[in-house]
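From: lab user (bench 3)
To: helpdesk
Subject: output format question, protein + nicotinamide-adenine-dinucleotide

Hello, I'm new to running complex predictions and I'm not sure whether the block I got back is the full result or only part of it. Here's what I submitted:
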Amino acid sequence: MPTNTILVTGGAGFIGTNFIRNTLSKRPDLYIVNLDALTYAGNPGNFNDLDAAMAKRYKFVHGDIRDTGLLQKLFKENKFKSVVHFAAESHVDRSIHGPEAFLEANVEGTFRLLEAAGKYWETSEKPEVFRFLHVSTDEVYGSLEAEGYFTEKTPYDPSSPYSASKAASDHFVRAYFRTYGLPTLITNCSNNYGPYQFPEKLIPLMILNIIEEKPLPLYGDGKNVRDWLYVADHCDALIRVLEKGKPGETYNIGGGAEMKNIEIVHGLCDLLDARLNRSVNDSSRGLINFVEDRLGHDRRYAIDATKIRKELDWQPKYRFEDALEKTVDWYMNNMEWIDSVRSGEYRKWIELNYQSRKKE
Ligand code: NAD
Ligand code: TDX
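Helpdesk reply: Thanks, we reran it on our side. This is the complete output you should expect:
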C-alpha cells in the first residue's frame, strides 16, 4: 500500500463501513486498510460492491486490535499516515448482560492500539502529519435532565459498562497526547442512524419488527431522548477532524435532532405503513409494547456542537425527516443484507434481551 494509507479499525461495523465507503469515494488519493475482528457486528461483505478503482485502494485484514504482533506488522508494512479507531463493542444492552467483553475490546483494545501507534510514531521520527483519531460517544457524559447540553468540558459521568469502557478509553487516548505527545484527536458523537446499522439498535430493530409485524419493545415510558445524527454527516465530520482538527483536542458531534424514542417509533410506523399499504385501522402503532426499562437508562443526551461548527466549519447537512426516510428505504431494499447479518447468534440475543423484559 502507498504512503497515503490510513488504518481503520472496526471498519466492518456500521459507522466504519460508512466511513470507508464515504472516504474512498471523496478522497481518491487515499488507501485504506480495514482491521476488524469480525465479531457478530462485523460484516466484510459490506465492501463486495466497491467499484474496481475503489477496490484497489481498499484492503481487509481479519484480526484483533489487541494482537500486538499483528499491529506492529501492519504499521511496519503500511507506514500509516493516520489511524481512525472505531473498533469496539458498541451495544449498551449487551454491556449490561456481559460487561467483560467491553473491558477487553474497548479499554484493552484501545490501549494496545495506542501502544503500537505510539511505538511506530516514535521510531519513524514523529512524522508531523500522523494523527490518531479515536471515535467515542456522548454517553461518557452521563445523562441530562430536560435542560442543557453536553459540551467538550462536561465532566465524565458514565452510567453503563459500555459508556464506562468508552470513558476509560478516552482517558487513555488523552494521556498518550499529554504524556508522550502522540497526536491524538477524540470525537464524542450522538446516536447515529443510517445504512448498515446492526438491527439490535433502536431504529433498525424497529424497522424490521414493523415489516415483520412483531411487537415494538419500548423501554420504560418511551420518553428517553436521544440526539440523532445521520451517519453520512458523522463521516464528513470525522474527515474534517482528521484533516483539520488540532492534536490533543476533543470535538463533540451532534445531529441537532432531539427526539423521544416514542416519537421515533411513531415516525417509523407511519413511514412504513405508507410503504406497505397498511391502513390507519391497521396501523403498526398498534404493535408498540412498553417493556421493562433498561438498567441505568440515561434519560436524555443532547450535544452542543458549537466547537466543531466554529473551529472546523462542520454542521449536519441532512434533515432528520429526510434521512430517516432514506434509512427506511435502505432497509426495505436490502433485505438480503439483513438476512446475512441475522445469524443464530442474533436470534439468541433477541431472546436473551427481550424475554426477560416482558411485563406480566
Ligand atoms: P458496531 O458494533 O457496528 O461495529 C464495531 C466493529 O468493531 C465491528 O465490525 C466489530 O467486528 C469490530 N470489533 C469489535 N471488537 C474488535 C476488536 N477487538 N478488534 C477488531 N475489531 C473489533 O459499532 P458502530 O456503531 O459502528 O460504532 C463504531 C464506534 O463508534 C464505536 O467505537 C462506538 O463506541 C462509537 N459510537 C457509536 C455510536 C452509534 O450510534 N452507533 C455513537 C457514538 C459513538
Ligand atoms: O429495543 C429497544 N427499545 C428501546 O426503547 C432498544 C434497542 C432501545 N430502546 C431505547 C434505549 C435508548 O433510550 O432506545 C434508545 C436508543 O437505544 P440504542 O439504539 O440501544 O442506542 P443507545 O443506547 O442510545 O446508544 C447508541 O448511541 C450511542 C449506540 O448504541 C452507542 O454505541 C453510542 O455510543
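A quick orientation on your result: The mean pLDDT is 97. Let us know if anything else is unclear.
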